[in-house]
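Hey, I'm writing a tutorial for new members on how sequence and structure tokens pair up, and I'd like a real worked example in the thread rather than a made-up one. If someone can provide the structure for the chain below, I'll link this post from the tutorial.
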Amino acid sequence: MNAADVMTPHVISATPDAPLLELVRLMLDNQVSALPIVENGTVVGIVSEGDLMRRAETGTEPRPSRWLELVTSTDRLAADYTRTHGRKASEIMTHGVITVTDATPIAEVAQLLETHRIKRVPVTRDGALVGIVSRRNLLQALATRLTSPPAAADDRTIRDTFYAELRRQPWAVGPGAINAVVAEGVVHLWGIAPDETLRGAIVVVAENIPGVRAVEDHMDHPRVADPLDRPNWPSPARP
């Protein structure tokens, strides 16, 4: 799936000259948490709820202590003042917006959101804004996949897929120690599980194979020697 498959199209946006009140009303009236700022068809910034949380009008603007002011550059202090007192989008918006194209795989989109700790990313096509992908869009894509009927697969295909996936995992030490027996879509797992963590991961591998109806865990644990479990040696002979 690509960004185009999950994005919200027809994005509500604003221009750099849009006044503060217009930005607030656009967010409230359209129930959106961010507005891409577009100039000549190009995304030049974004204004989110977070940008409007700390404002002079509500008395919530940051008030750095005197010692912090002394160690903060004047440029940074001036920029913070502009953001909390600015009256139009160009003064408030976040610059240097990260964007993706409509052909960007959603795995890459998710990585960008996580790496940059952002909640949404505008989507472009040939440089023009065509949509926006948020964390909610990714959750909606997940919900769709979870509610879609699983693809049909025969027992042999399920078994082969299980071992192929197990071999791809770096944590799966000695996948040959696990015997997967599949009957009518039910995977029966036999063998020795190294520990509880790996045991759970092996079960999850089987659960995620298309066509699996259920997983039965018959795996044993390796016997761990108990320090108190000593051999029953005969008592030494008394003199």
